[in-house]
Amino acid sequence: MEGSLGVRKGAWSKEEDDLLRACIQRYGEGSWNLIPQRAGLNRCRKSCRLRWLNYLKPAIRRGNFAEDEVDIIIRLHKLLGNRWTLIAGRIPGRTANDVKNFWNTYMRRKSEEKEKRKEAMIPHEVLKPQPRTLSKISLRLGGKQTGEYHNSAEQCSTEAYAAPPLQFPENWSDNWLESLLEELGSCTCEGNGSCCSCTQEETLRLDLWDEELINATGT
DNA sequence: AATTCTATCAACCGCCTCGGT
DNA sequence: TACCGAGGCGGTTGATAGAAT
What's the CA A194/C1' C18 distance, rounded, in angstroms? Predict the structure, then answer.
């Protein structure tokens, strides 16, 4: 089981695990390019790093995901998308790989259920969209007078059509996760914005990302 | 008991970012 | 500014255990 450069690939043996563990206990994490040499392993740096982070690290929790963990994953995925490391970072003892694997099987199960429901559905009357006149003062425009109704992309990109600034609670930056879960918990619109601020998700994402960076850099 | 199917998860691969030179 | 190497991430694959036939 060796690669083109004579580097071993595939499943790790217990001996290899022991060597890697001992090496990291002695030298610490990091300097992954030196780890194979120091540990006496015929593995590439990436393989060593992955094995440690996903399997050997003492804090790792194994076994099925608890109900509340699943709940957090679903909510955070709704907000962050496939940012597995960020999501895993909010669930103690779980790795990005675990979360990713869980999500893939979870999603497969969900889509299969959806397919089944679709097949079992009775055909029903389709409601066609009706032409309608929009009010000159819309909530989305913050009550600003906008003049005539426009429908071209060019016209819609003008300043008059910019969305109003997001209103965050005063304590937003202090406990963003609690605020987030609270908001997501009351959401029933599946992202169409009919009941909440799902349509503001992109801006929300950027703010959350900033928060992560601030936490990471300590600035 | 043998074979096939399915779900799970460890591991690999390619790409991106960042810091050093 | 360009290049290079290390670290890190997400997507995908492959091995394998367990269930179903």
Answer: 44
Residue A87 CA to residue A59 CA, distance in Å, equals 16
* Nucleotides of strand C lying closer than 7 angstroms to a protein CB: 5-12, 15-16
Indicate where chain A has its CATH 1.10.10.60 domain(s): 63-105+174-219
Do residues A1 and A9 lie in contact, with contact meaning Cβ atoms separated by under 8 Å?
Answer: yes
Q: What single letter denotes the amino acid at residue A93? A: G
Query: Tens digit of pLDDT for each residue in A149-168?
Result: 333 333 333 222 233 333 33
Please give the structure tokens belonging to residue A219: 């600035």
**Nucleic chain C contacts, Cβ below 7 Å:** A 10-11, 30-33, 45-46, 49, 82-86, 96-97, 100-101, 104
Can you state the angle between helices A176-185 and A201-217, rounded to 10 degrees? 160
CA/C1' separation A35–B21 (Å): 24
* pLDDT per residue as tens digits for the range A11-52: 899 999 999 999 998 888 878 989 998 999 989 999 999 999
pTM: 0.62
Give domain A63-105+174-219's CATH number out of 3.30.750.24, 1.10.10.60, 3.90.320.10, 3.40.50.2300. Answer: 1.10.10.60
Q: Please, what CATH class does the domain formed by A14-56 belong to?
A: mainly alpha
